[in-house]
Amino acid sequence: MAKLGSNKPKAVQLQTIELSISGYSNRRIAKVLGIRHETVARILKGPIMAAIVGPQEERLKRAVDVAWIELEEAMRRKGVRAAFALLRNSGTFESAKARQARQAQFEREENEREVRREILLATARAYPSVPGLSREREEARQERIARNRLAMLENPQDD
User: Fold this and answer.
1) Which of 17, 3, 32 is nearest to 106 (CA)?
2) What is the pTM assigned to this prediction?
3) Domain that holds residue 127
């Protein structure tokens, strides 16, 4: 039987879902977050995603039906050009400039995630595990140490 959901921290699962909703592929999400693409697929089939998407599914279906009717009406009344204008104004088609801006933003965020990941890895090497801590407490401790190190890097104090 296939494994449902993931044992990854909830923050990683939420980031995975957020990137997926933004339109990124499972492999790209895996690369950005430093996890396996199979794990990404499990997260997207898991209970957190179902809880987020489930209530919105029927509303989304109705919105698509309404949008399709509007598009057909625009084509019938004003022609194909009007239909394309409607799609462009709704954000379905984006300009090259908007696409470049979105790509640049993604690359900045990806670089920031990579720096954070490197800091987490350095933290894990610098602060070995404490014997007797549960896995969740150890992860929380590592995240706390990493956040403190990030805060020190982002806000250097002049002594």
Assistant:
1) 32
2) 0.41
3) 96-159
